[in-house]
């Protein structure tokens, strides 16, 4: 893989995105959080790539009792299907990552809703009361929750 150069986001767009994220209700944030979709797609991509590698290895899909010519066509068809699947999954990851709330929060530095932002970013609950105050979370410090991941 080649790394594509990232084009910086215009300031006016960052400001608009920040305003939208700051006014986002928790339900909407949970609805549009694509973190699990991205992880699932990455797992599927890894699986498809490993299947393609085993298929392309010399003797990887060789069947000792095959009947001959028909197996080459089947092998080629399966190989093309896997290549297409890998290409589709890579495009899907790129699309999902482009509109991901986590990336938007990181780029825009949205900060009005500290708890919601920490939940979207899947940060850990603060370990101490001082960290809790520094994080700007609402309510009282709960020592039972310390160290656990925050979820929307």
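^ Assign residues to that structure.
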């Amino acid at each position: 893989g080649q790394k594509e150069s990232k084009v910086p986001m215009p300031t006016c767009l960052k400001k608009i995105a920040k305003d939208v994220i700051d006014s986002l209700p928790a339900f909407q944030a949970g609805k549009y959080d694509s973190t699990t979709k991205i992880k699932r797609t990455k797992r599927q991509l890894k699986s498809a790539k490993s299947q393609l590698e085993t298929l392309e290895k010399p003797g990887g899909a060789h069947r000792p009792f095959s009947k001959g010519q028909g197996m080459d066509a089947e092998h080629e068809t399966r190989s093309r299907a896997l290549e297409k699947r890998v290409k589709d999954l890579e495009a899907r990851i790129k699309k999902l990552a482009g509109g991901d709330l986590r990336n938007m929060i990181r780029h825009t530095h949205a900060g009005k809703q500290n708890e919601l932002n920490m939940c979207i970013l899947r940060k850990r609950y603060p370990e101490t009361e001082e960290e809790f105050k520094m994080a700007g979370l609402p309510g009282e410090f709960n020592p039972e929750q310390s160290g656990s991941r925050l979820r929307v």
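The CA atoms of residues 8 and 107 lie 10 Å apart.
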